[in-house]
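Job type: complex structure
Entries:
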Amino acid sequence: MKPIDLGYIRELYREFAGELAAVGKAQREFAESLKGTMTPQLDDLEAEITYLLLRATRPAAVMELGTFHGWSTSWILSALRDNGEGTLHSFDIIDNVVRNVPRDLAEGRWTFVKGDIKQTLDQVPADTGYLFVDAAHNAPFARWYLQHLFPRVPSDIPVSVHDVYHFRATLPFHEGKVVVRWLDERGVPFFTPSRAKAKADYAALNALRDELGLEPIRGAGNNPMIFFRMPALP
Ligand SMILES: C[S@@+](CC[C@H](N)C(=O)[O-])C[C@H]1O[C@@H](n2cnc3c(N)ncnc32)[C@H](O)[C@@H]1O
């Protein structure tokens, strides 16, 4: 099992460059077709790294917490389509995503669960192989999901949490501060392509994108997401 770090992510960019270019083009067209009704949330590097980790690890089931209008949902579904296997289980209080996600991406591989995750937790697949978290960004919500959601999924699976490093440090009273402290206490390393927190990695990955001829999708962006492997929990 490879650690999620710059070296590994660079390898994956090279391995999947052609497919990444095709998905990037489709995502640009998807965003253009829904201009005004969908606000893409993930920046290019963090969306592409999500796609690459899904391609590399080929999970049987993915859990997505927080769909909003469907930008991350369509990235994840594209990876599962390209894998030729795997299902996505998405959770959100609002269901705008259901109208937005293209039918050919959704059919046969997507389940949307509407409601507060605190009430729908029993629908999280036990065999989740990738956990994607982009929901409420306050500290109490983070404490809740660390206690109730994280122990439900297997150890070692890739996990990503959005909106952690918009700045060089996490913000007080914010989800990111709670999650980073939780990881530190357990000695779990994380990777971030954040422009503010990890300038050198951000620059290295953007240079690699240029070298591989990958065009901007939304543009460079802040990329505040963190990626790590789920530690073994009691
Ligand atoms: C930042 S948006 C997600 C953006 C999305 N990942 C994307 O790429 O466009 C956060 C979403 O989390 C949802 N959310 C917030 N708290 C939630 C909860 N307790 N249970 C389920 N969904 C929640 C919100 O309704 C919102 O749609």
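Summary: The pocket of S-adenosylmethionine is lined by residues 41-42, 66-69, 71-72, 91-94, 116-118, 134-136 (CB under 6 Å). The first helix runs from residue 6 to 15.
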